[in-house]
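Subject: sequence -> structure tokens, single chain

Hey, anyone have a minute? Need the predicted structure for the following. Not urgent.
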Amino acid sequence: MERKLIEDLSDEQRDELGFFKYKLCYVNYSDTQYDENNEVKAYKYDLYFTLKELEELWDDSWEIAPWETFSNPPQEKTYDKDGKVIENPTLILELWVDSENYLLLPPPSCSVQDINSGACSWLYYPARNKKCNGIGIYAGMTPKDIWAKIGQFSIKV
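Reply:
Had a minute. Here:
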């Protein structure tokens, strides 16, 4: 699969990818990039999106906290609460953020179900300016919504 940067895609290409339709349902911190001096250069987050309604999604241990210990990202085929197999088309976007603009993950007291119901954000950026106290990236946001929030506060990606 060929990788492309979101900013290099036209609105038509973004629409074909579901950029305006998919909803955020899971985030996973997955990598750290270092420079030649072994200093942290960037952090990588995998953002998982679905076309399903968030309350329809169910995966092993999504109801158990801490979410990062017990849960896994959504699967292409998953189960509903009654154990019936459901198809779950998933879009995964990589978000690399430079080390100066770290993003906070949800607290360990939350489960995936808590996060997806809006109890807290999947990612939080503690803005360092007088305009606001920070921004949250919440479950249910589209890639377009997230891209607009990141651009609004000039987070380096």
